[in-house]
Amino acid sequence: MAIYEFETRTIYMTKQEIFQLEFENHVTEGLKAFPKFLSSKYIYDDRGDELFQQIMALPEYYLTEAEYNIIDTHKDNLRKVFNTHGAFDLIELGAGDGKKTKVLLKELVTNKVDFTYIPIDISQHAIDDLTNSLTTLLPDLEVQGEQGTYFKVLERLATYNKRPKVIIVLGSNIGNLDHPQAIDFLIKIKDVMSDQDFLFMGFDQKKDPLTIQHAYADSQGVTQEFNRNLLHRINKEMDGDFPVNNFEHWESYDPETGTAKSYLIATEPCVVEIKKLQLKTTFKKWETIHCEISQKYDDDTVEWLANKSGLEIEKIYEDHQKLFKDYLFKIKK
Ligand SMILES: C[S@@+](CC[C@H](N)C(=O)[O-])C[C@H]1O[C@@H](n2cnc3c(N)ncnc32)[C@H](O)[C@@H]1O
């Protein structure tokens, strides 16, 4: 049970109820706004997790393969670096199915490194699946999974035990934030780090715009289904009547800013009623809902972000096709 401050009243709610209320408030705000928006972080329920796993297996979605290659190639070095100060907590923000992390976990467990793995994800389903699969794959591994959003969990991280921390954020999750939000995110991480701690984070790199465009607009339409899951969730959880098939996915990558943006676009005019929110909203033909950004980076931009956040780059790891990089950060001295 947790405390939720609402206007002047204090209400006692479960974590799940608070999360649901935040989702509902977000939908109200996003659909009343002009232009409309909805955050991609709410795509991830059981179905959303499953669709994201399908995306990771798509030939166009190079990110997973590239980061897998980095971790697999450098796992020996990463083990040594992470273990610099002895026993530690390995905290993963937005862990998902942990496909790439498992390579690292196996390396650590096999070499009898003393650590606890703490995966954090907004999706309870992702945490449950990951924890269960690790019980079978690595029975000796100590796992303490936790459902929650990055920011909420980061606030609590400071009170975790005082062992050295290695915080990992894979899959370019940071790319879903614009630069000011990314700086805020990095500062929050830095604030829970001490001098001996590491941050290991994936940043997808600027590259041929077509490669990026195709990664987020696949030929099989899986990304479209993934984004539409947000509307399915609203229909299911808030008694809405979005005509989901009338919303098409559109991806647009701007090579100048390095920002890929995804939208759902109404291909027919419609009125959508969401009974639980007592909300009616109209869509003109071709009206958009902005769902997600996927920011692409280069070394200069990552260095600038680090500088602004009180971090410094210790080491850069790159995949063999030079598509993706993971950066190892420490607190700036
Ligand atoms: C793009 S997936 C990447 C998963 C994994 N890091 C990887 O590299 O394969 C993003 C993951 O972060 C989770 N997520 C998205 N927004 C989040 C938030 N604000 N707080 C916590 N988890 C979040 C999603 O549920 C999903 O599992």
UniProtKB/TrEMBL annotation:
Residues 24-330 form the Histidine-specific methyltransferase SAM-dependent domain. Keywords: Methyltransferase, Transferase. It comes from Nonlabens ulvanivorans. It holds the Pfam family Methyltransf_33. It comes from the Bacteria. This is Dimethylhistidine N-methyltransferase.
